[in-house]
Amino acid sequence: MTKAVLIQLAASLVAVLVIAWLVRRMGLGADPRIADDAHAIRLADEAEAGFGGVEVARDRAGFAAIVRNAEGRMLLIRAHGNHFAARPVDAGVEGRLDKDFLTLTMPERTFGAVTLHLGKEAGVWASRMREVSGRSARPNEAAPARSPARPPTEYPEMGGRAGERAGAAVPSSEGGRTRG
Amino acid sequence: MDKLPDPVAYAVPAFILLLIVEMLVSLRADKSRYEARDTLTSLMLGTISQVAGALVGAAVVGMAVWVYQFHLFDIGIAFRQWWWAWILCFILDDLAYYVFHRSAHRVRWFWASHVIHHSSQHYNLSTALRQTWTGFFSLGFLFRLPLFLIGFPPAMVFFCAGINLIYQFWIHTEAIRRMPKWFEAVMNTPSHHRVHHGVNPRYLDANYAGVFIIWDRMFGSFVPERDDDPVRYGIVKQLGSFNILWAAVHEWVGIAKDVWAAPWRHKLDYLWREPGWSHDGSRLTSAMIKARWRAGRAVEEPAE
Hints:
Number of strands of chain B: 0
CATH architecture of chain A: Roll
Number of domains of chain B: 2
Radius of gyration of chain B: 20 Å
Distance between the termini of chain B: 65 Å
Number of strands of chain A: 9
Helix content of chain B: 55-70%
Structural class of chain A: alpha+beta
CATH class of chain A: Mainly Beta
Radius of gyration of chain A: 19 Å
Largest sheet of chain B: none
Order of helices and strands of chain B: HHHHHHHHHHHHH
Helix content of chain A: 25-40%
Shape of chain B: globular
Oligomer: heterodimer
């Protein structure tokens, strides 16, 4: 590479960082939430045409949801930037139940782990994940730590490692580890 | 070989200025058009794409010059004498771009390189700069070689290709709804190109044009934007990540895994068949998604 190309590259990098900083500084962006069950079902249909969701487990803060269709197939939907991204909840997905929280760890590392605050429904959906895989629940030796101050859904791009939360580990007596 | 300036290098300051203008418009119209991490990903992908281009540029030019020695017609480069050749070259280069771009969506090998450009769920001027790193590796440059065989000088072709690329920058925006009717009829516009970036079943695999939308109208791939079906952007399986490296290589990794796991007689199919194709029918191609969507509408409509 010539000197001119290197100078051009350095200038480009500076411009890139300045523009990205400007976007943040100007307050551009959105805070996408799943408003209600109908919204989650619509998002599932957008992710997979004709999915036809019939039942929804929506994270209390609206960051993520699991949508189930009449065939029993499930889709996980989570916020990504200003929008949403979805993945099927199948045998490759690892689930961990911790009282009212259900954490799904996708086989695709870059997609990250998603923790949904589902309240009393968490156990029901953990069972459904077990049904998908046909495996029984195992005791949860290392339940995810809980930090009420942070949103319940975390992804690698938000700064933490997949499935990792701030705060001390809180083992759960009703915790189960399932592979959905 | 004759030397002409690279028009793209001169256009970069205008790109940055227009980006900032669009950001200001978004601030007033719709803040969700931009997202800092998405913009950073797009611009970093674009910057590294420039580096990749610089690294392989000499090889592409060398190949063009080598093919040019077999040219059929003697065409000069002086604009005053050869103005008609310049116009013809620009039009034929745009046709070559259409063929390349259509292949880039219909053949997984080419798609693996092109998917970077579609991997954002946003549609703004920074998306235009989200460009491939692996264009040379995927052999995308082959589509322009017939122009050198005809006799268009490599410098002329590369200059026209640069103008083509610059034209495509401004159409990556939601800030412009529709251009005048006559313009929409002939030229590629923000409206037409929004459709191209859409993942709505109606919009999949449409509007491959670079500069002139006439190619899509001629070859049956034109789909107009509809106000009752707002475009959702990205790829069928959204990335769900702002990881730059993953955005650049995820489809190559997918191909490698599929080829590894496929039965011998299907291994090559995972390279040349359309994205979404699988030997056991376990995945959906865009044609299958469209068919499923049409079937769903057929059921819904009589009930409405």
